[in-house]
Design goal:
about 260 residues, alpha/beta, 6-stranded mixed β-sheet, about 35% helix, single chain
Length: about 260
């Protein structure tokens, strides 16, 4: 099967510091893959380059057959890549519903005057966006809170709202940056079920960063492990959890080659 995302020799340098060195990753449609490693390993740097928030100093990113290296974030979103963030980035003063509606702005094809005049095409598009937003809120179990301010939601609910907002962009690839961070065990279990469900129902490919090893081992089909910007292991969860080099990286031990 053709790959959906191919990352070749991706490198990011900040002055004299190499945050990521010649990183390679290939995702086929429908995969659920985890990117793990200690703090500062380069995981979020990968996400920031894939989504256009950083321009690589070397390497190439090909998505759905097109080179997107260095493209602007809005173009990458339009191409079919959506993400959530390690630090929640909701509009706290907007309602839950309005937070999802924000993601539909680039899908509205009607002109400004079409909106002002309430022309039929604009009304159809607005209704479709409204109905889809409510459906997504039902998917993440937040429909009954649609009118509440996003800033007043519980932490786990805010995480689910971020997922709904990402789905509103109609992605093919969903990047989740520490989605279970700060969640209690019940919330984490519910999130695992949500990710598996939306992956199936929306035919998504999912790449996630996570420090919760129970979560990672329970949901990912394979894992890629980074340490100090270098790939140190790759394989199925049961292989990775017994990998000596991975254990050393997480325990803070370093061998001198």
């Amino acid at each position: 099967m053709n790959s959906l995302l191919t990352i070749e020799k991706l490198t990011m340098q900040f002055g004299g510091l190499t945050a990521l060195s010649e990183f390679f990753l290939e995702l086929t449609p429908g995969e659920l893959v985890g990117l793990i490693g200690p703090n500062g390993a380069g995981k979020t740097t990968v996400f920031n380059m894939v989504t256009g928030n950083l321009t690589p100093t070397g390497g190439k990113i090909v998505f759905d057959g097109k080179d997107i290296t260095g493209h602007k974030p809005h173009k990458i979103t339009a191409a079919g890549i959506a993400r959530t963030f390690q630090n929640i980035r909701l509009f706290g003063d907007l309602t839950v519903f309005e937070n999802v509606m924000v993601s539909f702005h680039f899908q509205i094809r009607s002109s400004f005057f079409g909106g002002v005049l309430g022309l039929p095409r604009y009304r159809r598009e607005a209704k479709r966006a409204h109905d889809t937003a409510m459906h997504l809120l039902e998917e993440v179990r937040l429909a009954e809170l649609a009118g509440e301010k996003a800033g007043g939601l519980a932490y786990g609910q805010q995480r689910r709202l971020e997922v709904a907002r990402a789905l509103a962009t109609q992605p093919k690839l969903l990047l989740l940056d520490e989605p279970a961070a700060g969640m209690n065990p019940a919330e984490t279990e519910g999130l695992m079920g949500l990710i598996q469900r939306i992956r199936r129902d929306y035919q998504l490919t999912v790449l996630l960063i996570e420090h919760d090893m129970t979560f990672v081992m329970g949901i990912c089909e394979r894992l890629k492990v980074l340490d100090y910007g270098l790939t140190i292991a790759e394989g199925p969860p049961e292989e990775i959890q017994n990998n000596e080099r991975v254990i050393q990286a997480y325990l803070g031990e370093r061998r001198v080659a």
